[in-house]
């Protein structure tokens, strides 16, 4: 459908050999109640029917644009390339297996109108497993976060950019996306924007993100390394005062210690990934030397009897905690499943409000989704 007014938001969608899911992702953008946008698809040399699918949609709606790379440049560089082409004042990022909810842009632009000084809008993103199970969310508290308060809050909430809109000028000022951030590209951008600028948040559901299986998680040492890079960027940012840089670096250290500790122990106990516990022990020894947490992480990374016993005890405690949490979160999960159904139905998948399939059933009909950003191969 032709739209006369100039576009205000560009949605960047990298893709690789998933035309059926891509069609659904594009449709979720076209369903937006706010009409002034572009959808720019960046095809990583799929060599399948992807180009035909996008061309068919573009014939019906001129807001859809397509670019095909002559060769596969990888997921991260595809995101960075797409961001660099954006000419509209605002942009957002959408993976080809994820969805936007219909009022996302309308909610974001209303927030920017109220708080024009904000350089990032954060809406609630519902995250679910590949089959639609185990929905969860970590919404930000509603309101405005003056710089640099967003940094500390982002540690407790989500840095998933599926439900976020950015002002283009902020990315230019930061030197664009950093491909060296790897799969933590979204977190790197969010932390750097929060370190410099105010951000505005809403608890309105805005996006749906499907995450991969735990067995495909990338090594914890990669995650730690990329966040140490982000910390170094903030520490050397000339736009920040020395006091601001020191404060945020200290907060990032504490967060890295907590997150590495939890992830290292969890992966070692549940997935027998002892190298992740060793990576956690290494960062803990750096920032919290001789702490109990550092010693425990080191123990979890050993093949000793004591290490095995500690991991077994952790698994048992985690199982009890999960059951208790499941009972408390029952109502919340029911609400999240309703949001998922709304998002899937809005994409024209033949589901009706009266006879919608369960999200898990729907996901099985579209086929398995690759398990992690690294495996997506865009």
**Residue runs with pLDDT of under 50 for 5 or more positions:** 350-378
> Structural class from helices and strands?
alpha/beta
Give the N-to-C terminal Cα separation.
29 Å
Largest sheet: 9 strands, mixed
Give an account of the 3D structure.
With 378 residues, this protein is of the alpha/beta class. The protein folds into two domains: 9-212, Spore Coat Polysaccharide Biosynthesis Protein SpsA, Chain A, CATH 3.90.550.10; 218-302. It is 51% helix and 15% strand. Strands 1, 2, 3, 4, 5, 6, 7, 8 and 9 form a nine-stranded mixed sheet that branches. α7 runs parallel beside α8 (220-235) and α9 (242-271) packs parallel to α11.
């Amino acid at each position: 459908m032709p739209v006369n007014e100039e576009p205000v938001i560009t949605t960047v969608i990298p893709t690789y050999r998933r035309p059926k899911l891509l069609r659904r992702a594009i449709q979720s953008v076209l369903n937006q109640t706010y009409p002034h946008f572009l959808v720019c698809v960046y095809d990583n040399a799929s060599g399948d029917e992807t180009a035909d699918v996008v061309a068919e949609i573009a014939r019906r709606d001129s807001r859809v644009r397509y670019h095909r790379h002559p060769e596969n440049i990888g997921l991260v560089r595809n995101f960075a390339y797409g961001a660099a082409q954006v000419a509209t004042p605002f942009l957002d990022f959408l993976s080809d297996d994820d969805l936007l909810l219909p009022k996302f842009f309308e909610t974001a632009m209303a927030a920017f109108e109220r708080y024009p000084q904000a350089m990032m809008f954060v809406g609630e993103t519902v995250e679910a497993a590949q089959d639609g199970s185990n929905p969860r969310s970590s919404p930000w508290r509603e309101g405005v976060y003056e710089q640099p308060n967003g940094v500390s809050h982002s540690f407790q909430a989500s840095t998933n950019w599926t439900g976020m809109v950015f002002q283009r000028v902020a990315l230019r000022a930061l030197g664009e996306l950093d491909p060296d951030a790897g799969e933590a590209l979204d977190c790197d951008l969010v932390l750097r924007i929060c370190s410099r600028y105010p951000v505005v948040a809403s608890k309105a559901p805005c996006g749906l993100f499907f995450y991969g299986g735990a067995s495909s998680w990338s090594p914890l040492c990669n995650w730690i390394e990329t966040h140490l890079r982000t910390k170094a960027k903030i520490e050397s940012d000339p736009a920040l005062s020395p006091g601001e840089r020191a404060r945020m670096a200290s907060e990032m250290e504490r967060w890295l210690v907590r997150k590495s500790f939890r992830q290292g122990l969890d992966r070692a106990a549940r997935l027998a990934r002892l190298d992740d516990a060793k990576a956690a022990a290494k960062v803990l020894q750096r920032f919290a030397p001789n702490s109990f947490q550092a010693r425990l992480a080191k123990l979890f990374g050993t093949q000793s009897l004591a290490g095995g016993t500690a991991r077994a005890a952790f698994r048992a405690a985690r199982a009890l905690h999960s059951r208790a949490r499941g009972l408390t979160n029952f109502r919340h999960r029911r609400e999240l499943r309703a949001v998922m159904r709304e998002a899937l139905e809005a994409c024209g998948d033949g589901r009706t409000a009266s006879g919608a399939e369960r999200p898990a059933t729907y996901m099985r009909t579209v086929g398995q989704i690759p398990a992690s950003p690294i495996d997506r191969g865009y």
